[in-house]
Each structure stands twice: as C-alpha cells, then as structure tokens.
Design goal:
Elements (H helix, E strand, L loop, with lengths): L15 E5 L2 E4 L4 E3 L3 H4 L8 H11 L12 H12 L5 E2 L5 H18 L7 E5 L8 H7 L2 H4 L9 E4 L4 H7 L4 E6 L2 E2 L5 E2 L2 H14 L2 E5 L23 E3 L4 E3 L13 H14 L2 E4 L9 E4 L5 E2 L19
Parallel strand pairs: 5-6, 5-7, 7-10, 10-11
Antiparallel strand pairs: 1-2, 2-3, 4-12, 8-9, 11-12, 13-14, 14-15
Helix pairs in contact: 2-9, 3-9
C-alpha cells in the first residue's frame, strides 16, 4: 500500500529533530556533521539566530498578500540583487525548476517581442539537470526522468557539453537561445571550460540569440564567485538562481513578481546575514571558503557546512 507521503524520493530511514550550525541531531540521539547542507541550500547552517528571528518577526506581521499589492521586501531584495549582478530586474518564484521555466519563457518571449515569433527552440546540453516539470524534463533530456510521462515537450535541442562545434551545428532559424550550467552538478561535477562559455556568449552575439545561465546549483557563491559564469568573464542575458531568474532589459522583458512576504523576508535575512556580494577568499589549491559582499554591509561568513562553498566548489576555480 502506498504511504500517505508519496514515495517520490528514496529517503534514508533517518529523521532529524534539530540542528546547530553544521551539526544535525537525529531523533534517536545521534549527531551528524552535515556535508549535504540541505542539497546546498542551508547556506547559513542550522538554527541560525538571525534567520530564525526574521522568520518569526515576519510571520507575526503578514505572511502572504499576493501580487495585487506592493511588497517592500521584494523591492528591497530585488534592488540588492540587481546592484550585485549583471541584471536589470528580478522575477521571484518558488523553485529552481520554476526559475528555469521562467528563464525559457523569457527567452521565447524576447524573440517574439523582437519580431521573431518563429524562434522558440532552446539549445541545452547532455548531462544537464534543469528541474522536474514537464518542460524542464525535456530540457534536461535524461531518458530515465522522461519515461512514462507521454510525449516530450517540444522545443529543446540537446548537444554534447563543452562542444562548440555541436552548438553551432544545432543553431537554426527557429533557435531563440541557449541554456547552460557553468558547472554541471548531476552531470558529474563537470566544469564548463572558460573557452566554452566564452564561445557560447560569442555565438549568441553572432546569431542574435539569448544566453541563459542555470545557476541554481552553482550560483550564490558556491564556486567562490556570486555566479559560476563570472569565472569566464562573461555576462548572460538571463540567469536562474535558486529562487528567481534575473534578466537584462536590453534583450528580454518580463514582469517582476512574487507575493510571499514571509519567503522574501527569509531570503533577505539570508542575504543580510551573509553581508554582501560573494568573492573568493582562498589560496591556490585551497577550498572555497568565502567572504560575502552583496550590496550590504561587509561581513565575513564561516565556511559553508559542506566544507566547500555549498558542496559544488572546486579548487580548479582558483585560477
């Protein structure tokens, strides 16, 4: 008989009742050093006082008002993110899959708005992971994930990772853009080379395409810079992070959104606790403990509970 909680994940028979910093305490009394960091989302560790206080304070005020009204927390956070990045505006949403889906929609809508309604296809890469919605399963292209869900959503052309010749061969009259991870997580921690990422930027400029970066896994300082693509010295047109896509107004347009005051207060508290935009603080060959310097007061964080910056940092990025 199926459990009340649908078994979509192969969960370990282990439950935690509390956490302190990098430590988790199981219901059976055992203590674990958390190297998973909530799959790279518990960036402040567990039981962080400033974050807990922000959640409690906002929950006592208002938790949700919808997108029918202004949300000062969203406006404040969006401005801070814009100030720290390439983007002109931010679209808040709820998950990495939704952020990537929004990124693809922005790419397609930009083509439509600039007189190229025929352009809707997006080039993606073997070994990628962009989420589990039907469209993002198609963008990911993993047969294991696609099995059993009927016809695959059209509009994605997958090519080998780190292969610029394959990319150029895939560009056609219906191509609107390219979506890529600077560092593939599920694909085996595979790094997009500097030449490859720069070549993608050049190809998009040459063929008037939009470059979208999926930074859900490698963004927010996990490689030692705020975004993974920064190591290649490029700027995309759209980027998806763990809670929203960013975009540049000169190539794509969309509305800023997000109706959850509580969620945005939590994100703002995380940003404030980090204390500013992220830059690498390391010696050659060292791990990626980092100093965070978003457009806020400067403050130095402790190294991530994973031992690296969110579990995806690599000493090769110290070049």
């Amino acid at each position: 008989m199926i459990p009340a909680l649908m078994p979509t994940y192969n969960r370990a028979d282990l439950a935690f009742e509390r956490g302190e910093g990098a430590w988790l305490y199981a219901t059976d009394g055992r203590r674990f050093l958390d190297f998973g960091s909530g799959i790279s989302t518990a960036s402040l560790g567990h039981g962080h006082q400033q974050l807990a206080d922000a959640i409690a304070e906002q929950a006592h005020k208002v938790m949700h008002v919808s997108n029918l009204y202004r949300i000062p927390q969203a406006e404040r956070l969006a401005q801070r993110l814009v100030d720290a990045s390439f983007a002109d505006s931010v679209f808040f949403c709820n998950s990495g899959a939704e952020a990537n889906e929004g990124m693809v929609k922005m790419i397609r809508r930009a083509a439509y708005e600039t007189g190229h309604a025929e352009r809707y296809r997006v080039i993606t890469f073997e070994g990628a992971f962009h989420g589990r919605t039907l469209a993002m399963l198609a963008a990911t292209g993993n047969e294991k994930y696609l099995k059993g869900f009927g016809p695959v959503v059209d509009g994605f052309d997958q090519v080998p990772f780190n292969n610029l010749n394959a990319v150029r061969n895939a560009i056609g009259p219906q191509t609107a853009g390219i979506v890529v991870e600077a560092l593939q997580g599920e694909g085996g921690i595979r790094e997009g080379s500097v030449d490859f990422l720069r070549g993608l930027r050049a190809a998009c400029d040459e063929f008037d395409l939009l470059l979208g970066m999926d930074e859900v896994q490698c963004g927010m300082g996990r490689t030692g810079k705020l975004f993974g693509f920064e190591w290649a010295g490029i700027e995309p047109d759209v980027a998806a992070k763990v809670f929203e896509p960013f975009y540049r107004a000169d190539k794509s347009r969309a509305r800023q959104s997000g109706g959850a005051g509580l969620g945005l207060a939590i994100v703002a508290a995380i940003v404030e606790a980090h204390g500013g935009s992220v830059r690498l603080d390391t010696q050659p060959g060292a791990g990626a403990a980092f100093t965070v310097r978003l457009p806020l007061a400067s403050a130095t964080t402790q190294p991530s509970p994973t031992g690296t910056a969110g579990g995806l940092a690599d000493s090769r990025y110290g070049r």
